[in-house]
Hints:
The complex is a heterodimer of chains A (389) and B (304). Chain A is α/β, with parallel strands linked by helices and 389 residues long. Chain A folds into 2 domains: 3-142 and 275-344, 3-Layer(aba) Sandwich (Rossmann fold), CATH 3.40.50; 145-269 and 354-386, Rossmann fold. Chain A has 13 helices and 14 strands. Chain A has helices at 3-21, 39-55, 76-89, 101-113, 126-129, 144-157, 171-183, 202-211, 223-234, 252-258, 278-291, 297-316, 323-331; strands at residues 26-32, 59-60, 63-71, 94-96, 117-120, 137-139, 162-168, 187-194, 215-218, 243-246, 266-269, 343-344, 350-361, 367-379. In chain A, the strands form 2 sheets. In chain A, strands 7, 8, 9, 10, 11, 12, 13 and 14 form an 8-stranded mixed β-sheet that branches. In chain A, helix 2 (39-55) packs across helix 11. The radius of gyration of chain A is 22 Å and the shape is globular. In chain A, 57% of the residues are buried. By secondary structure, chain B is mostly helical. Chain B has one domain. Chain B contains 11 helices and 2 strands. Chain B has helices at 2-32, 39-57, 60-81, 91-113, 140-162, 164-174, 176-181, 186-208, 218-233, 238-264, 269-294, and strands spanning 129-133, 136-139. In chain B, helix 1 (2-32) packs parallel to helix 5 (140-162) and helix 5 packs across helix 6. The longest helix of chain B has 31 residues, at 2-32. Chain B starts with a helix and ends in a 10-residue tail after the last helix. Chain A binds chain B through residues 34-37, 39-40, 43, 169, 174, 191-195, 197, 199-200, 202-204, 206-207, 210, 223, 226-227, 230-231, 234-236, 253, 256-259, and chain B through 3, 6-7, 10-11, 13-14, 17, 106, 110, 114-119, 121-122, 127, 129, 137, 139, 141-142, 208, 210-213, 215-218, 220-222, 224, 253, 256-257, 260, 269-270, 273-274, 276-278, 281.
Amino acid sequence: MNRKGFLLTLTVLAGLATSAVAQQPVKIGMVTTLSGPGGYLGQDIRDGFQLAIDLEGGKLGGVPVQLLVEDDALKPGQGKQIAEKFMKSERVRLFTGIVFSNVAGAVVPDILDEGGIYVSPNAGPSNFAGKECHRNYFVVSWQNDNLHESAGQAATDLGYKRAFILAPNYQAGKDALTGFKRLFKGEVIGEVYTRLDQTDFAAEMAQIRAAQPDVVFQFHPGGLGITFLKQYQQAGLLGTIPMVVAAPSMDSVTMEAVGDASVGISVTSHWNADFDNEANKKFVEAFQKKYNRLPTYYGSQGYDTALAIAAALKAVNGDLSDTEKFRQAMLKADFQSTRGAFKFGPNQHPVQDWYLLRVERGSDGKLALRTQRKVLSDHADAYAGQCKL
Amino acid sequence: MTLVLEQILNGVQLGVMLFLLAAGLTLIFGIMGVINLAHGSLYMVGAYAAAVTASATGSAILAMLAGLAAAAVTGMAIEYVVLRRLYARNHLDQVLATFGLILFFNQGVTMLFGRQPLFVDIPAALSGAVEIVPGVPYPVYRLLIIGVGIAVAVGLYLLITRTRIGMLVRAGATNREMVRALGVDIRLLYTVVFGLGALLAGLAGLMAGPITSVQVGMGEQILILTFVVVVIGGIGSIRGAVVGALLVGIVDTMLRAFLPTLLRGMMAGAEADALGAGLSSMGVYLLMALVLLLRPKGLVPAHG
């Protein structure tokens, strides 16, 4: 071997050695919905998550991470394929990102069966909160029912007696109506299931008008909600029958798109851009600076999920081989949530406060969600008791 | 009783939207033998062009013209660039290519306008409601949609039965080769028909803008129902599209509006709601299956 060849070999070997010493980044698989009507939900979750990584300079909890993102297009089958691919060819152990409960229902069991960890930034279907809860399954956002329980409580507090309630006919829609009814003390005089691909709600508007309720509660996430609210206004119901909704039916994007039709609507949420705490101020400012738009609550959940994972990664020093150690670290929830107080309940779902917001037109002429008051304190979900961990 | 009347109007209005889409789809299939999955994308293009123009200029007329022009030009461009190469191929190739176009347009719109839905106002003059019968206020804009739909149906009928282009269209639908052999520029005819179909899809899209949300993927949501309409009405038949669209629109709306209430009279609340919702969303597909069983060529077949 000549001198040049020897030197070359040496350099290559040295290169190998250094890369072995430097820490391999922890791969995080994000399966989320980026296309179609629900596309902006996944986009905000991804951007919020990425923001947390960027603010730490490519790390979470001091551990270098690599975020792999793919679009499930709101198709459970596609989500399963992506998760499969991430696990088989990229050796991903830690997953997050799913927006919709029907996708989560298909993908999450696959991940858990393979010994992976899933941290939900959004969907929290009821079955995974109760009997089917799992040691490696965490939810940072909420259990689906919580959103609507808070709306039910708010409707009761506001003194409404007769409610007309609507939601799409799928798992999260059913959870929504169940949740609302759980804490609403008045009478439900009409209960309608709509379709997830519905574009025209004229039939439902006519039913609402005929029923003359005190209040309408509806759950229609993303584009569906925009359509629903516009048609609610066009049917002339907006001025006459008040509406109470949970956060998914009225985020800042929906509000922008709906415009004046949203003024005066009561919204319940666990987070709002105007929350006065350090973590939230930092998040809202950094998000607006980086993406040049106001974050929706999906953005805050993506960010909080990243922070929760960061705290756990720090405690285990980026080592995911012992999932029990990671779990213990996760459950401490040692991070500053943008929503203020946050902790995990026994089924690894959040225990948190819920607030009443109202859509108002600010002095600058812009629409904004304003926080009014707290509706529920340290609220857990109804399924925790069924979970045996 | 007034509720029933209102729901029938709602059904007719949904039917009209479906008709505008189905007319183009069925024309294109009947004459050119092409299954155009990207028809929903033309609907989206029309809606976006109108929404963007409306917010830039504030003029409803300009927005309408922009929507129509954008959809028609896009349609003709698709025909010229992509479909022209596929007429001789089998349906699977066409489906593959037009499915690719869906992805192309969805991604293109996402890159241009982002994923967040756009907001379109109803023009102020049309934003009110009128009482068609006492006690039933109905939005003027929806009445206008019904009116436009009827006008288009009549216009298409006259175009196809009374004009030279219509004659060629009918001839082309019956026997393509013969029309070509007689020296008609069939390629030009194809482009014109495709443009017309696209124009109608764009019209549906721009009218839908103010009542639904203008967003990526809006075309695919309604495209499935449109295919149901075409199958029920009879592939290639404009009259079939009218009948099919109204039938689907009314059946769908009526089932959604009244089935859960009917069922609630027979069984417990929650079960009735779940069953009602399930049955009413299956309703139009059951109807399609029934039609296929009894009249496999559709209710009003194009020829024969």
